[in-house]
Each structure stands twice: as structure tokens, then as C-alpha cells.
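dumping these here so i dont lose them again. two proteins, back to back, each one seq then C-alpha cells. dont judge the mess
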Amino acid sequence: MDEVQVVVAHSERATLRVGDVFLKVDGDQARMDVEVEAMALAPVPTPEVRWHKPPVLALAALPGAALGRLGEPSTASPAAWAAAGAAIRALHDAPLPPWPGRGPAELAERLDAECEWLLTNGVLPADLVTRNRRIAEAALRPWTPVFIHGDLQPDHVFIDGDEVTGIIDWSEGAPGDALFDLAILTLGHERHLDDVLTGYGADVDRDVIRAWWSLRSLVAVRWLVEHGFDPSAPGCEVDVLRSRM
């Protein structure tokens, strides 16, 4: 009998692995519906949906291994990172999904709220928050929406050798800023940005990508702390913020 492995578990959702099947349990039916539909629409490899009986979604395991993990050096080749960039470009060139995404105004409100919480509770030094808040403002400009993954961490991209075998965790898929996906993929992996952009094949504003690094790190700290994760672990969000100083 296959053992049950807890991949991740917190108050919003849990993911279990049993053999070659991942079971995602999510009490937010709308979020799970987005994940299923986004995978169906995305022009990139995604996990096979074995079955879907709310609140559980069963997905087949992907071949290969994760491109990288936040806080750890990636052993993937430059060609693998470039392949990830090419996959992102294919997604961004696809038709928009038929549901709304978040715009600059909504994200600015969240950034303000999270920075206020960080300062009020003394979670991070004021100069660290203030400096990164200024950097983050460059991301909050008008953009032409594209189909984004919305949470494209490197451990959501699977590779076998130099090829992308699939991308997981599509619950944040929506119309959004292309540079957000590129930023989340390279958050904490700045040295691989050139490889990703080589595969992506388009000129981008690197200052905006850096702004998204600051913005994402600032708004993530409270959620991570409240859900049992450590944003101050080496190489993670707080280190990303410090690197902007």
C-alpha cells in the first residue's frame, strides 16, 4: 500500500501524495474551479486531472523534478531555466481567461495594508519596509493584461533534463502583468533571470521585475507567518527585501 505523504497543509488548503496521485483539498470551490479551468486553457503542459469531486482535486504526478525552490540554490541547467521562460511566453501569448484579474489599484491597496501591518507590529525594520515600498511602486503602473499563472514559483515548474514537463498550482491563473510571472519565477534566484529572459524572447523592463520582487515579498510576509512558514529563512522573502537595500 502506498503511504500518504503530506506535501503542504495549512488553514486554506492541503495537498497529499498517494503513489503517483496528488490530492488537493480546498474549501474554496471557486478557487478550485479556476485551477481546473486554467489548466484546461493553458497552452503549456499541466498535470492530468484524474478526477474532481469537490472539495478534492486528484492530479497525476508530473515526471521530472522542480526547477528550483525558494531559499535553495537551483541545480537546473541554464537551458532548463530558458525552457521555463519559453513556456511562460507561450502562456502569455495565449487568449485571456474569461474571468477578471487584479489591477494596479487593488494591488496598491494591499501593499499599503501589508506595509502598515509590518510597521505597526514591528515585524521588519522601518527602513527595510520603506525602501522596498518605494521600489515596489514601479510595478504599480498600467499594463496590458496577459494570461498569467499568478503563482509561478520555481517549485511549480517541473523539468526533465532541459525540458519543461509541466506546471502545477493554477489557482491564481488570471489576466495580469506578464512581468509578475517572470518576477515570481526568479524571486530569490536572480542569477537565473538572464536565462529565463533568453527563453522568453522579449525585451522587458528589469526594474519592474525587481519592483515585483519587493512587492511580492512585502505582501507575503504576514500570510507566511500566519500559516506557519518562515519568511526569514535564508534566501527567502526577508533576504530578498534586504538585497534591495
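---- next one ----
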Amino acid sequence: MLEVDQLSVDYRGISALDNVSFTVAPGELVGLIGPNGAGKSTLIKALLGLLPMHGQVALYGMPVRRQRHRIAYVPQRSQIDWDYPITAWNVVMMAQTARIGWFRRPDRQANRYVEEALQRVDLFDLRQRQIGQLSGGQQQRVFLARALAQQADLFLFDEPFTGIDKKTEAIMLGVFAELRAAGKTLLICSHEWGEALDRYDRLLLLNRTLLANDTPKAVMTLDNIQRAYGENLQLSNGHLETLFFC
């Protein structure tokens, strides 16, 4: 479904990503991990066509720039202006803008998609609440609902589990399971560690280039972690623990 071939990104002569290649199949939940500054967010933005790049990114065999309507993106919470005066309902309705147009009233189908998405993340009763008045977990669920309302095939999440509550985490994991069962593809930039990584089908270990691409058990070896994180790790009770994450 998603094919990335020899993807490279340079910032003013400095290499942010170098020769990254991988594929992600329908129904896969893939975690993207690596140290701070490894290029994880850069990779996601490159997949969206938001950065100049070298190499090829294809979705269903076609250039990704022609398939943006099939991709849903949930950015890091730190990248969002939570003071912007917009309701939860209108944030989710933005997912339907490409289909209905900027200056047309939402049709019945758009309203149904938005209502179903807000119901799924348990926020329908707060649909008229300003996003700045919501808790961190509720804010994350608003953007998850927006992704669901887009009716996309590929879902890109940038650190979705940062600063959320247990209820939001449970809802998100439930949604991820439903999307996988429906044959959707999910790529998640994660700063998680330890047993939490077992929820992924595969891990992509990145540090400007792709260091490992395999099951969590095969990727999380001492050799791979040292290649990715260098000396910034510790051994405690036989387990690997990094000093910093994503």
C-alpha cells in the first residue's frame, strides 16, 4: 500500500533523512521509533508531501501527492494552536472540507461522518466546546475523530500517546484495532519503550537512516539500540532503558 523508496531530505545542506526505504501493507500497525532528532517527524511530513525530498513515495502505486485525500494525519499536540476559537465539531468537520469544498454547507453525509467519529471517541456531548477548554486527552481525541471522519486509508500519527489519560489511551488503542481489522494502514511515531512496543506489528528504527525494520523483538536488540542511541542508554535489571526518547 505505502511504498517508500530511497527517500532523502536535506535542510540547507544538512542531511535529515538519508536513503530510507520501506513498505507498509494494509492492516499493519507500524511503530516509528528513534532518538531525538532522528528525523521521525521529518519522515512523516515528507510522506505527506510537505517537504522537498529526493526519492519516491507511492500509495497504491501512485505518487503520494495525488493521494492526499486518502491520508489522515494527526500531528503532535505541541504543533497545534489550542487558543484558536474553534469548536470540537468544526475541527472534525475540517476532515470533510476536501470533499464538500471550503464554502459549501456540510451535507448529510458529512454530518453523519462527523457525528459518528465524535461518538466513537466519546466526545459528542462536548461537540460545541472550544478546543482550548478541553483536557489534553480530549484534545487528542478531537484530532483522532478528525482522522476518522476523513474516511482515509493511511493514518499517520506523530506521538499520539504523549500527555494523555488512561481513558484516551484505551479509546485510541480500540480505534487502532478497528482500523487494522478494516484493512487500514497505520504508521505511528512513538516515544514509548518496553512492553508498549509489543502492540505494533513491526518497528522502524530510525536515526536519519533506517537501521532496522522487523518485529519489535527483532528490532529491540542491544546492538540495534546502541547503533540508534549511541551511549545514551543504561542497563538496569537486564533491561534496556534510554536516557531520552522521541
